[in-house]
Write a structure and sequence with these properties.
There is one protein chain. By secondary structure, the chain is an all-alpha fold. It is built from ten helices and no strands. α1 packs parallel to α7. The chain is elongated and about 55 Å long.
Length: about 220
């Protein structure tokens, strides 16, 4: 579960980060509009997460979390076809698919982690889970920046990041799009690996009974 969590962080961590550069640079959108267009990911995840948590309590976490990662991979597969003329509707659809998949993965995977540790160790488990997810995001952004940095001059990159530039000035568009596709392709492959590892997890031990018995002694 921890490994899947790390790989999921790597697979999706840089997506919104890269889309900011794409929307402000290639699509010439102002920062506010670009930010609003990134909300489908969060909205889909917000809607699905409580439902997936409820389902994992009843049917287990392995299948749900694995399916969630596969759905996220479908969204990344869509992003692999991105180009300078890709419609906003397609971008919203792919983000929503990724958000749906992430929401379906996160709650069951967290449930699996918490079910695999004694009750008195769950605070530590939650901290490790968060650390792994954050580490995955950092790795993802570092990987993405390494791939696309050659297509954006430093001044343009800084201006786009802080929201003071709108448009493709300082961006080698064809090379930038190629870098985006490569990054999304790597993320797609990582998401598939994460789904495979997630499905291989064993049965969840139930620590609650043992913990309660020890507390009564």
């Amino acid at each position: 579960a921890y490994t899947s969590n790390l790989l999921n962080g790597i697979a999706r961590g840089a997506v919104t980060f890269l889309l900011i550069f794409y929307l402000q640079g290639i699509k010439a959108m102002d920062p506010l509009t670009a930010g609003i267009l990134l909300t489908p990911f969060a909205l889909a995840m917000m809607v699905v997460s409580p439902i997936s948590g409820w389902l994992s309590d009843r049917y287990g976490s392995r299948e749900l979390s694995s399916i969630g990662l596969l759905i996220s991979a479908v969204g990344l597969l869509g992003f692999m076809g991105i180009n300078a003329t890709t419609s906003i509707t397609k971008l919203i659809l792919w983000m929503a698919i990724m958000g749906f998949g992430s929401g379906l993965f996160i709650s069951p995977n967290t449930n699996a982690i918490m079910s695999n540790v004694p009750v008195d160790k769950r605070g530590i488990a939650a901290g490790v889970r968060t650390m792994m997810n954050n580490a995955g995001t950092v790795i993802s952004i570092a990987l993405a920046m390494g791939i696309i940095s050659s297509s954006i001059d430093p001044q343009a990159m800084q201006a786009l990041f802080v929201g003071t530039q709108v448009g493709a000035k300082g961006i080698a568009v064809a090379q930038f799009i190629k870098g985006l596709r490569s990054t999304f392709g790597i993320s797609f492959a990582i998401s598939l690996v994460a789904a495979f590892i997630s499905y291989l997890r064993g049965p969840q031990p139930k620590w609650e009974s043992e913990y309660s018995a020890n507390k009564r002694m």
